[in-house]
Amino acid sequence: MNFLRFTMGSIKIIFRGSKTYYAWLFGLLCLIVWGGSGYYSQLNHGLIVTHMRDSVSWAFYIGNFTFLVGVAAAAVMLVIPAYIYNWKPIKEIVIFGELLAVCAVVMSISFIVVDIGNPFRFWHMLPVLGTINFPWSMLSWDFFVLSTYLLINLFVVTYLLYCIFYKKEYKKLLVLTLVLSSIPMAVAIHTVTAFLYNALPARIFWNSALLAPRFLASAFCSGPAILLILFQVLRKTTKFEIKDEAIWTIAELMVYSMAVYLFFTIAELFKEFYSGTEHILYWKYLLFGIGDNKEIVVYSWSSIIMGCVAFFLFLIPKTRKNFVTLNIGAVLIYISVYLEKGIALIIPGFTPDVLGQIYVYTPSMTEIRTAAMIFSIGFLLFTFLVKIAIAIIFEDYTIDSLVRKK
Amino acid sequence: MKKDISRRSFLKSLSLATFSALALSGCNMEELDEFLQRNFRVLTDKEKDEIIKNLEIHYKEKYGREFQVTDTPAMEGVLFGYALDLSRCIGCRRCVYACVKENNQSRDPQIHWIQVLQMENEKGIDFAHSNVHYIPEKVPEKGHFYVPVQCQQCRTPQCTKVCPVKATWQEPDGIVVVDYNWCIGCRYCMAACPYGARHFNWGVPNIPDEEFNTNVHYLGNRPRMKGVVEKCTFCIQRTREGKYPSCLEICPVGARKFGNLLDPESEVRYILENKRVIVLKEELNFQPKFYYFFGV
Lengths: 406, 296
Prior knowledge:
The complex is a heterodimer.
Chain A: H1 2-14, H2 19-45, H3 60-77, H4 79-84, H5 90-115, H6 138-165, H7 172-198, H8 211-237, H9 244-275, H10 280-287, H11 297-315, H12 317-320, H13 323-344, H14 347-350, H15 365-394, H16 399-405
Chain B: H1 2-21, H2 29-36, H3 45-63, E1 68-70, E2 80-85, H4 94-102, E3 115-120, E4 144-149, H5 158-162, E5 168-170, E6 176-178, H6 188-192, E7 198-200, E8 215-217, E9 229-231, H7 236-239, H8 246-250, E10 256-260, H9 267-274, E11 277-278, E12 290-293
Parallel strand pairs in B: 1-8, 2-12
Antiparallel strand pairs in B: 2-10, 3-4, 5-6, 7-9, 11-12
């Protein structure tokens, strides 16, 4: 009953807002409809409306999935520095980080669902009802860790907001245990996702032990970038207080992980190009193209250039502490990692294919529309959740305000 | 058994509730049964028989042809192996099209279980410099040799290991099969296969009704649906009845040999013992049962 009131109260909040808020919602809804009609045609005709084929059998969808797992992981890993450096609004950082994680996990699972040929058979993967191939298939592991991670985060934020809503003290031990357990889970979801690709000897491009470390490092660049901007927006528009120093520390941590990521990539590139075995083909396709097939070169170099610019913007203290350049850097690194995971990770794994043939893949309009649908749904969800959280945490929206109105 | 029935009816009512809510238009009981059908390997013989009987009726309605669907199990003491003579193969691709016909592969979109690679003599077996789309007027072309590649029926396949739902597995006679009704279409197996042997039904498969091969095996050449993976099964519908695969029968130069690896008198065993054989990508340790050799 109490929980029902909490839910009803939350639902009321999402309908209250300014014109800009409604315009934002309307824009997202338009994108969902536009993208959804693309996905509908995919449901009817099959994945043939994508540009994936037998040679490149995974592509843009799986790339997006990987990227979002990274975002989800990094959002919660931000709790570690918040805890160590004792940033004041630690509870708020945990809540917003976990809200982002929840939305990112929902989006990443959606990308898996749209990628599979028979989405209605998804239940075959459930334990007891289906025949899940646990522990052999890494996909079954991924499914397991992602859903656990989703549940933990969803529970923690709901519980915290619920307690604030009812002005109750939350059970510190319970929350602390769950938050602390969600941190290794965050590492786990991205590691398992890397292992998904990593241990396939058929796909030489991914068959490197550095894949999982690179995943984690790149996730720590893209995930906090979103929160960095969100915290500034919250600070301007609500009573949320976060010191400049905390934001700069996040930026500093991001620059460390960028440096680590750069180092891992250089190590990988050195090994491949200096030894010059046939394995180099895939990197060649990614960076220079093979013959006339240069279609993804533009993506890989834009990712590299944007990443490097962001690295220097974050590295130099002057530009790091200037909020204009800081935000430019955050956007650049976000796009850079998105291109790297969305395009540059998956496609070279399949080009040339295992029999040495080249099938040139770029996403089809249906794939772009479906992705737009999922991202819009994710943003919509995130908007709603953040709005509820803001109202409850900063605007004293409690059970009293609900009762008083009656 | 009793528990199974109750679980089945529970499942049925559960999904009836959800799916009527979802208002899946045109969802009749037959489709619901198909939707609820469990993994082939957990079915009882009785359930299998019933499914097969229903399939025959369904195919008759859909394609207007009488199908004979079987689920003949593996013979005891049999482990199938294949050998292909690279010095004989002329790259005519007759095997490719015989396979398409025999195994009811979609004509449009086109699916070929066998890929024939044209390689350059001086490069040897080098996939990066091979060409699958060669179109000369006459084969073989000078300076080239040909390597047909199909499922290598690995002894330690990774495709079956990575499947998240156990929809593909290795049978006791060594054939790797797919349960088309259980495959969710995630294509993880395709990422894991180093031979490009697995093919996906990206769209609804199309085969003219009159061109169907109506002798089908449940785990082999029966008509597939969109969104599932399929692959070479050494012509399971033929070889389990003691016949040769159709790619072997069509080969005009006798480059293809097939038999029981456990039978010391078989032709493949003779080749293994007397010729120098290689397997593709041996460094991956998937241990194919498909051998290439030079007969002359």
